[in-house]
Design a protein that fits this description.
The chain has 125 residues and is mostly beta strands. The protein contains no helices and eleven strands. A hairpin with a 4-residue loop joins strand 7 and strand 8. The chain is globular, with a radius of gyration of 13 Å. The relative contact order is 0.32. The model has no long low-confidence stretch (mean pLDDT 96).
Length: 125
């Protein structure tokens, strides 16, 4: 059974940084499409970043140049480094993973099958 557990959320001031982590059991991040999405109160879920098994990445326009998705293949942890945080980044952040190597791997995260329970990010202005 696949389990994804996020951590690293918190409350920071605008301009600050946070690094989110996602640990997996029953799943290897390096082999398939993985990513992060977020959902703010009253808003639709939004894909933030994806990381392919090849190492290529895609980001939603609003976080390009500020967020970096990466993984530690030894520790099997997925990260989201978030710099220059803005109030509009306020959201619950979730990691996601695909079950199939053939799954589509875009920032829409439509190919994801597994989700964590999320970690809350709060940005104060």
């Amino acid at each position: 059974q696949v389990q994804l557990v996020e951590s690293g959320g918190g409350s920071v001031q605008a301009g600050g940084t946070l690094r989110l982590s996602c640990a997996a059991s029953g799943y290897t991040f390096s082999r398939k499409c993985v990513g992060w999405f977020r959902q703010a109160p009253g808003k639709e879920r939004e894909g933030v970043a994806v990381l392919r098994s090849t190492g290529s990445t895609n980001y939603v326009d609003s976080v390009k140049g500020r967020f970096t998705i990466s993984r530690d293949n030894v520790k099997n942890i997925l990260y989201l480094q978030m710099n220059s945080l803005k109030p509009e980044d306020n959201a619950m952040y979730y990691c996601a993973a695909a079950a199939s190597i053939a799954a589509p791997c875009g920032v829409s995260l439509s190919g994801m099958d597994y989700w964590g329970k999320g970690t809350l990010v709060t940005i104060s202005s």
